Amino acid sequence: MSLLNAALRRLFDLLLYPFQSLPAAVGLTVVSLLAAIGMLWAFKKTSNQAGIEAAKRRIYAGVFEIRLFNDSFRQIWRAQAAILRANLTYLRHQLKPMLFILPPLVLAVAQLQFQYAYAPPAAGSRTVLEATLAPGWESGGVETSPSGKPRAELVLPAGLVAETPALWIPSERTLTWRLRVEQPGDQTIAVRIGGRLYEKSLDGARPLERRSPVRPGRSWLDQLVYPAEPPLPADGALERVSVDLAPAEVALPGWTVREMVGVPAWMTVFFLLSILFAFALRKRFGVTF
Amino acid sequence: MRPDRRPRLVRAPAAALLAGSLTLAVALTLAGCGDTGDARVASRSVVILGFDGLDHELTGKLIAEGRLPNFARLAEANGLGKLGTSVPPQSPVAWSDFITGSDAGVHGIFDFVHRDPKTMLPYLSTSRVVADPDAGEPWTLGDCQIPVDGGQMELLRHGTPFWEKLERAGVETTVMRMPANFPPSGSATRELSGMGTPDVLGTYGTFTFYTSELFYDDSKISGGGEAVEAWAEDGIVSTELIGPDNPFTKAKTKATAPFQVHLDPDEPVAKLVVGDEERILKVGEWSDWVPVSLDLGTCGKLLMTPSIPAIARFYLKSVEPEFELYVSPLNLDPANPVMPISTPPDFAAELAETTGPFYTQGMPEDTKAFEGDVLGRDQFLEQVRIAHDEMVVQYQRLLADWRGGLLFLYFGAADLTQHTMMETLDPSHPRFDPEVSPKYADVIPRTYALFDEFLGYVLEHAPEDALVVVMSDHGFTSWRRAFALNTWLWRNGYLAVRDPQSALDAKLFGAVDWSETRAYGLGINGLYLNLQGREKEGVVPASERLRLMQELKEKLLAEIDPATGRPAITQVFLREETYVDGGHREIGPDLVIGYAKGTRGSSASALGELEEEVLSDNTEEWPGDHLMDPDAVPGVLLTNRPLVRPAPTLRELHWSILAEFGVADDRAPN
Question: Which residues on B lie below 8 Å from A258 (Cβ)?
């Protein structure tokens, strides 16, 4: 997983490099167009186009039948049953191309999430850094205070200031600091604990670059969800390190898209544009869906 | 109203209002008063900076010391004007005078509190909840109930606001935090309600103090705060924020929001967890605004209103040896207010969206927490500064978007800092502490300097042709001596008690024998006769009223303070001689007491209590005041060019503002 993520990180860094200094909407438009083209191509290659056409025709026929024989209950019920069967057939024909399209799309979305979902930390803003200790950390050579609090040191680059001492919550195995961003930049925060350094990036030099709220541990699921940074060492005292990042907005002409009910702004824009491009290009690709 | 003319601050849709979550919704229409209006489209721009409690004498002194360079610019150009205040010089009365251009006989606000003569109980003078008398019982379903009528907030100030007259003449008005304007009048293009706006509980601000101290004496915070016991178990304090009554349960329950505070075992730092919100706080730090959802339980969920939105600020006072956490009054969430606080209704949400959440309660400065020692002097000052800074950010934004018309911006910091810190400028004050007071002697001048700084910003950013008006509702002075009016009435045979032994312990006239009482005091400046046919147990015949009023006036004016050798009272106003008969004069006191400069009615007497002494030193944590003879506490008037119509008083200023826009009114006084 980590090798795949490393390769994808490089690919997307390269792909999005020309858009780093441009408004997010520009890069998203290009990415949505490429995604629409990719999905159309994959759909055409992997779907039963004739079957889809036939299923759609049967649905149209059923609807037409209901309109024609609207005074006959029997005919209406029969037409509705035919529409239902055709719908199921249609969905079955969609399933196969989705199996080909979804896995790369999920990986791409995971990468795009960390390029577009989070705003760069602004000067004067605050964030919270949380280091979660691994289960069984007590036996890992981590020094503790008399109260049982693990001794940890925060190593901060210039431009970041810790406003609080470490807060230890034993039930959550977390050490938490509140940080203030004095000078945004591509920064690396390090937590020294048990004689080792654990790093977490906090990049804010450019509007568009990889930013992740979590540096994951060895958990496969964590790595799938947070692929933007390499995982922490498996034998370390820390299980994960996270920072709070503010959600980013996407400014379109006449519409500033914001995070809504947990859906990041970029995702709204990406899916809207992808669908629009796919509809616009479907005839050129000779695809029906 | 002209929705097409309202510039919006943001394009994003405003947060949806929480439908039916509380009892309150207002559609208030103020009756027109027959002014002619002027059909010409106004072209002038007027910015009014309303600084509550800015004192004329102190302003002059600080100008002379060079502390207020922008005030000095205006004073040099047009003089430092004295602005005559209201009778009595209390903020709701004074601002209502300015708003309506009339006195209390018209607008009906005579004091912070009025009394119902049928029950002899006081009530807040500026707004009330009005229940629908035709509403039936709530519908019930198991343990739940559906209120049939939630009641409506009613603004008790009458008269026509100057902005309504301007709007009728086509002038766009923005009125920010005007006191005595809750619920908002609805007649400005944009307005945000100010002094008088309650918290979520419906009070003028009730903070909560969470403490692990056993036997904490909560009497010292009663009336302004609640104390809640809170202990840490395994380093976690689990408790809850307490909201208003849950309207959806038959049983008396409260809407609440659980929260936890995780304490570090070694360091003075904690994590606050309220719902999905988390904050890391060191001891001695304020949080930013934390959104709070007060849970309305299963009944609320069934009725599609699961919670009441609010916002709160937290101050971690201590973790060792005692856990002490101050939580601000639960303010209405401006993004989703459950009571009307702005015109248009989504204006508050737009402000919150562009400049962040803000104090919505009318008087954000938590003097009650300061008086009760929950907030120390420095913490209180920090809180005052937070509230002030929120206003400045908002006002700067409004100014940037302003396209002319009238812009009124209110600031309250001077009033509250002078109320609480005035002894720092007065070594003869009974509370002056030579060790502590001098350290804070610059607090009030600094507050004035903050205003000066904002005035400088306005002068720089307002359109060149804009008229800039700096005004205050009243001045300020040191309050050294307290006059117990009810005790004076008792000692002089006008007020009788049933049992002299227990008279000093009773509250709200509990000791008074009404059958033998001819007069009583309520509110700081109000003196009422116990009149037959008006008061519940009135004994004074109407034919005796004027004679008794005159007698009381003469005796009160003859009262000498033995500590100073000077009169304790310098003016007594008879109702009929002071107020016009504008339809609401009958609400007011029969006499209004104008205490000598430095003397004020005692707080206990204002709420119907009796005390040992008539005159005593003021030892309250409230060393400054203005509820005295109006001539002793004039306000300030400064302008960047001469007014078309001079304004020697607050009431006159109303007409002067209209005149600046060329809006005529046949009823304007000469």
Answer: 12
